[in-house]
TrEMBL record:
Residue stretches of biased makeup (Pro residues): 410-425
Stretches assigned to the Sigma-54 factor interaction domain: 145-374
Modified residues (4-aspartylphosphate): D56
Signal peptide: none
Matching CDD domains: AAA, REC_NtrC1-like
Name this protein carries in UniProt: DNA-binding NtrC family response regulator
Occurrences of domain Response regulatory (ranges): 7-121
Any one GO molecular function term: DNA binding
Region (Disordered): 386-426
Domain of life: Bacteria
Length: 477
């Protein structure tokens, strides 16, 4: 489906605004339909045709959020952009949780509207490609990624689809989820794979040197500039420029980056000659970029220039049993590197890996497995080898000495802590029961809206669907 062929449904009950918005959108689509009520919007959407929906929240017959909930509940193939004069961070977050693609606060410019709609059309196109190829065989390895969970299969397919495009990619995810791995995967899959991939961490370079790092500088342009220096933009010409932790950029440099993205040209620090490059920009952050925009730390116009193809990397706790695949991979690598004999984890050790919540994600798994291999030897990793907080704290060595140093004097009777009563066996539920009850309570509290329940539980919606299907098949719900 081409951009011009993508229909747009405008749900706006103020006729004068509807005419203005429809005029703005004429260049973006051949099919702009305007309705004034939520009921009319739902009637238009009943045909199941993929489309962009511009949805006002204050409608005469129902609240726009109710229309959004129905679109999500029925899994209609739409990219919904909320438009409202009553914007707030809370309303925006709620809209995103119910599946909205984006959120615009009135009044907004024609440029802001058209950029948002173009980005939504591209996102919708990629979603259709992912849906079309959604039954591909699962992959457990993909350009540096390890894992065969459903959430990662979706990531792999988005990368497949986005790689051939020139569109900017915006990667989000917690620290340690593999954002640079994702950027490199997009580069390797793209027609630019043979050209340079240049990465810059915007949070690791002093603010006064960042402009020089990106755009280069001329000799004598500042103290210490002893020679001309080529910046990352020039080095990435023909290839890909990856800007990690993009939300750390200073406001003045955000302005220069926006101009660079719009024109493809830049001037080195201290220079006078305009230089032009051909490159693709991929950026990443572990923050919530929309909240950074709302709180004034990140330019709104830059956000919409960069946020064309968003990719969210799931946390490791949302990736089913991927932690075991990752841990086995690193165990084999580090055992070979350290000359140790490890080749497997015991069943008890694997259960401990599954049960832990991994706040540091894949990077933390690397550190844990490296610790095990360096400090122990054998062919099997046992629970006793797992470092804290996965395993028990050390009972001797430094920990024991520390405890001894703080023990009461010999003449004082040691304090006896009260004995804890062991829980009654009847009070302990199997772990699957606790998990099932938590999920079912969340789904019920959200009126059956599984994506919203998943957001509140901080897991992926696919995890809920998969677990409920399994419990139904086993007669547990």
């Amino acid at each position: 489906m081409t951009s011009r062929a993508t229909p747009i449904l405008l749900v706006e009950d103020t006729p004068s605004l509807a005419r203005v918005y429809a005029e703005f959108l004429k260049k973006e689509s051949d099919g702009v339909v305007t309705v004034e009520t939520g009921a009319a919007a739902l009637e238009q959407l009943a045909d199941g045709v993929p489309r962009i929906v511009l949805l006002d929240l204050q409608l005469p017959d129902m609240h726009g959020m109710e229309v959004l909930k129905r679109i999500t509940a029925q899994a209609l193939p739409c990219a919904v952009i909320i438009i409202t004069a009553h914007g707030s961070v809370g309303v925006a977050v709620e809209a995103m949780r119910y599946g909205a693609y984006d959120f615009l606060v009135k009044p907004f410019s024609a440029d802001r509207l058209t950029i948002t709609v173009r980005n939504a059309i591209e996102r919708l196109r990629l979603a259709q490609i992912v849906e079309t190829f959604g039954k591909d065989l699962a992959r457990s390895r993909y350009h540096g990624f390890i894992g065969s969970s459903l959430s990662m299969q979706a990531v792999y397919r988005i990368i497949d689809s986005a790689a051939s495009s020139r569109a900017t990619v915006f990667i989000t995810g917690e620290s340690g989820t593999g954002k640079e791995v994702c950027a490199e995967a997009i580069h390797r899959q793209s027609p630019r794979a043979e050209r340079p991939f240049v990465a810059i961490n915007c949070g690791a370079i002093p603010k006064d040197l960042m402009e020089s790092e990106i755009f280069g500088h001329m000799k004598g342009s500042f103290t210490g500039a002893l020679a001309d220096r080529e910046g990352a933009a020039a080095r990435a010409d023909g290839g890909t420029l990856f800007l990690d932790e993009i939300c750390e950029l200073a406001p003045d440099l955000q302005t220069k980056l926006l101009r660079f993205i719009q024109t493809g040209t830049f001037t080195p620090v201290g220079g006078s000659k305009l230089e032009k490059v051909d490159l693709r920009i991929i950026c990443a952050t572990n923050r919530d970029p929309l909240r950074e925009v709302e709180e004034g730390r990140f330019r709104e116009d830059l956000y919409y220039r960069l946020h064309v193809i968003p990719i969210h990397l799931p946390a490791l706790r949302e990736r089913e049993d991927d932690v075991l695949e990752i841990a086995r991979h690193f165990l084999a690598d580090y055992a070979r590197e350290e000359g140790k004999g490890f080749n497997r984890f015991s069943a008890e050790a694997e259960q401990a890996l599954r049960a832990y919540h991994w706040p540091g994600n894949v990077r933390q798994v690397q550190n844990v497995v490296r610790n095990i291999v360096v400090l122990h030897d054998g062919d099997t990793v046992t629970p006793a080898m797992l470092p804290a907080p996965l395993g028990a704290p050390p009972a001797n060595g430094h920990g024991a000495a520390h405890a001894h140093a703080h023990s009461p004097p010999a003449h004082s009777p040691p304090a006896q802590p009260p004995l804890a009563q062991p829980p009654s066996p009847k009070a302990i539920k199997p772990l699957w029961e606790v998990e099932r009850d938590a999920i079912e309570e969340a789904v019920a509290a959200c009126d059956g809206n599984i994506p919203r329940a998943a957001a509140l539980l901080e897991i992926s919606a696919s995890t809920i669907y998969r677990k409920r299907l399994a419990w139904q098949a086993e007669g547990k719900i």
